[in-house]
Amino acid sequence: MAISAPPDAPPQVRQLASQLADAKPMRRGSLSDRTIKCGKPGCACAQAPQARHGPYHSLTHAVGGKTQSRFLTAEQAALAQRQIDAGRKFRSHVDALWEACEQWADSQLADVSASSREAKKGGSKR
User: Fold this and answer.
1) Which of 15, 17, 30, 42 is the most exposed place for a label (fewest CB within 10 A)?
2) Confidence of residue 22 (pLDDT cuts 50, 70, 90)
């Protein structure tokens, strides 16, 4: 499905719509590094925070209103971060397109309002 704007759309709307058509792997969520205590009774991680295990890379995102997290390797974390960045860029393009389309819609309302005023000024003859 290609995203396109009608020919009468303002140039900014057409440009933003074409940017959205450039699909790539992306995702929502965030990436964080965690260190954890393992829970083994004799392990140093229970006593000293600097001895905790990790860092482990954690990908977190919401699914159906619930937060889900999973651990990733360093290589997966680097790829996931690029995908998150692409998702944020996509979201900013969607927001910009939405704003441009609202401005376009406002200009159409103004045009209709101006033509209505012009029609009323002449009035009708009795």
Assistant:
1) 42
2) confident
